Amino acid sequence: MPSHPMPAVFVGHGNPMNAIEDNRYHASWQRLAATLPRPKAIVCVSAHWETRGVYLTGAAQPETIHDFYGFPAELFAVQYPAPGDPELAAHVAGLLRETEPRVHRDAGRGFDHGMWSVLRVMYPQADIPTIQLSLDTTRSGSGHYALAQQLVSLREEGVLILGSGNIVHNLGMFRFHDRTAPPWATAFQQKVNALIRGRQHAGLCQYESLGEHALLAIPTPEHYLPLLYVLAAQRDGDVVSLFNDEVMSSLSMTSLVIGQDVQL
């Protein structure tokens, strides 16, 4: 057992090109990995795996999924051959059964870009056993949080709980040629940040009620919900460190680490 619990991390992953471009987000993910203890294994909750019911990847060697279009061939050529961990998947399923009696394991599911676009930068050797946990579309924010609370003990086992999404995510309003954040996007991100710092998790679970800007910031919940899986891992006394705290047009890159003070 590690002497200190493994931190938990939420990353605003943004554009898939961040996986291969030499930019400030790519560099920050590299620095983050150098700052964190090395994980024994990783459990990732990505915005890009939605299911009806709770699913875990179950393959020993999951494939790399290129679940996007319109990007350069260089991005489609990326492979992230990290090993899966069927034993860890079984262990996580056992932890979740208190809240979800039926947890499915999908032996054919690969790693989506919400996971590998971040991890190939953090851990380029792809040598850390990794599994993904799906987002059950039948659950409310509070339901996701309650499920995630069953995973807190993984931190004591040296397992990195990683959420990958974006808090503000409205691609329909994104302006490619003017990245200035509209006031509503900045105001919403600042509200969420204040609630995170104040550990007001109940309010964050009820994201639909976070004021007039909530529906603009979260027109669909899949990019927001991974945040709740990381917040649920917070324990009394855990410090919370924000990084990449900026909004580009209608997309926020705000990220955070729970359980370790990081300066990136």
From TrEMBL:
GO MF annotations for this entry? ferrous iron binding; stizolobate synthase activity; zinc ion binding
What domain of life does the UniProt record list for this protein's source? Bacteria
- CDD domains assigned to the protein according to its UniProt record, in alphabetical order: 45_DOPA_Dioxygenase
Keywords, in A-Z order: Dioxygenase, Metal-binding, Oxidoreductase, Zinc
Cofactor(s) listed: Zn(2+)
Pfam families, from UniProt?
LigB
Q: Which SUPFAM superfamilies does this UniProt record tie to the protein?
A: LigB-like (SSF53213)
User: Which parts of the sequence belong to the Extradiol ring-cleavage dioxygenase class III enzyme subunit B domain?
Assistant: 15-235
The answer to whether the entry has keyword Oxidoreductase is yes
Q: What is its EC number?
A: 1.13.11.29
- Write out the similarity annotation: Belongs to the DODA-type extradiol aromatic ring-opening dioxygenase family.
This chain belongs to the protein called: 4,5-DOPA dioxygenase extradiol
This protein's species is Dyella telluris
